[in-house]
Amino acid sequence: MPAIAQQEKILGVSPADYDKVFVYTKNIDLIRKRFDFKKGRENIIVLREDPFLSKYASLTTLSQTFVDLWNVSDWQAKEFVNVLKEKVDGLLS
Fold it and tell me: How far, in Å, CA of 87 to CA of 89, rounded?
């Protein structure tokens, strides 16, 4: 699912347009076969898949998304995290 569609599904809005894609994989060779890796600005960030991630669904859980984006320095990630915190606060209050 495209990142913008996933944002809208999770948050109900798209807080920002994103120029990077985060993917999870158990097998980095699959990613290497699919994409050409060139010098330049990184726009695909590959994370090692949590062993339990595939048991949930085709999307990450809210907690997994929050934790993975928490330490990303891009302003887009910060916007996503801020909107996610507002949604969670609204659910808990």
Answer: 5
Residues present in the chain in total: 93
Contact by Cβ (8 Å): 14, 4: yes
- Cα separation, 16 vs 18, in Å, equals 6
Give tens-digit pLDDT for 6-26: 556 666 766 666 677 778 888
pTM here is 0.60
Gap between the Cα atoms of 67 and 72, Å rounded = 10
Closest to 18 in 3D by CA, of 54, 42, 46: 42
Distances (CA, A) of 38 to 41, 44, 62, 72, 80: 9, 11, 32, 22, 28
